[in-house]
Design brief:
The protein has a single domain, classed as 3-Layer(aba) Sandwich (Rossmann fold). The protein is α/β, with parallel strands linked by helices. The strands form 2 sheets. An 8-stranded mixed beta sheet has the order 3-2-4-5-1-6-7-8, with helices on both faces.
Length: 261
Amino acid sequence: MVLVTGGVKTGKSTMSVWLAVRQYWRQLRKYYIYNYVIYPTFHWIHVGPFKRMKLREKPLFYSNIPVAIKNFVPLTLDLIERRERFRYGSVIYVCESSLVADSQSIKDAFVNEEMLLLNKLIAHETKGGYLFYDTQSISDNHYAVKRCLSSYFYIHHMRKIPFFCLAWVRELKFSEDNNVAVNTFDTDVEDTLKLVIIPKSVWKLFDCYCYSVLTDHLPVVDQTVRVEKFGDKKARKIISFRKYKSIPKEFVDNGKVETQN
């Protein structure tokens, strides 16, 4: 189980997809070596460990966002809730893991149980598979994710050069005490960063703005307002869903959530 964190647009998805796809290629290699080399060579020996040999399932790549590799399978709630199972030896990638279940999901006992079983038993139930997460903030994850982590990768920053992305990464130990991640540093964080080189070809496999489809169809607000350089720059309106009792109504523009039938 692997978790990658970092600020907005620091390359979390780029690094996560690269790690997950690279691991998937390794899983496929092991599958082909076993099914097409080891099994044909030894399965006819019916003594000792050889008598229990049988062909393995071909691993697949499961993800909650589209990834352009041959054996991609969309991740579903039926898989997460264990009404269906993953292929043995598969790799699962979850982009923005808190979208699946966040720290507030503990109010639902069913979600708690399924997330706990998913994260605790993923290696058992996939017989050696791998689970990759990325998220902006580790504290926003469901507690079942955090309790199954001993460490995670934090991307401090990323730079782009021709053909490669250079990510400065640190592996952090994680402990949870009253829902607080504890990491102490005796030296400057930047002095202990490790350089990870990621080929830009990974960008051909996914769309780093894939969730833009949620708002691409909305009208664009582009009415610009001129603010005088030496004029009044007071904020005379609070845009909020809340209704403040101690602030005059003329200063508050309460937003409303409209539902469409």
